[in-house]
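Field guide to reading this record: the first block holds the primary sequence, the second block holds the structure written as discrete tokens, and the final block holds curator observations. Each block starts with its own label. This record concerns ECF RNA polymerase sigma factor SigK, catalogued under organism Methylobacterium crusticola.

BLOCK 1 — SEQUENCE
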Amino acid sequence: MRGVSEVAQAALSVDEALQRSARGDRAALRALYESEAPRMLGVALRILRRRALAEEAVHDTFVQVWRRAGGFDPARGSGRAFLYAMLRNRALNILRGEARTDLTDTLDEAVPSEEEGPEQVVVRLSEAGALRRCLDGLDPRRRNAIVLAYAHGLSHGELAGRLGLPLGTAKSWLRRSLLALRECLS
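BLOCK 2 — STRUCTURE
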């Protein structure tokens, strides 16, 4: 087990590495990555439960560190807290589907009301539109899942509850349907 002075020294080196990174020191960023990335990956894995997404979150966090290290203020907290707050925020954004797909832009044309169902949203899309054609090619239940998720903003859990599906099935339907839509639209 590490002693108190070792922990303080490690925190000091993270703080120093962040300050040096803010001044454009690539070696400091590399040292910070080498010392913190393995632990950060573990934290991201606990949040995201998928290694590829966890690795993406850690990578994105270090890109943010490089760009925003100047925002680190040792008077407001430790460097390690700064890093892990950025990682947590990035992981939560990934969970929320921050970059869902470009489909959201197209579906925004048909902004639904709360009482409007998925079928009415699809009907409101342009008859000649490529998205409408591709959505019509999906199984009706899967089409409803896509519209509820992207036009009504339902989370995976809300979608599963609304459709009476297990959570894994709802996620799988969305993933497969999005792949089918991407293929159809390309």
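BLOCK 3 — OBSERVATIONS
The mean pLDDT is 79.
The two ends are 55 Å apart (CA to CA).
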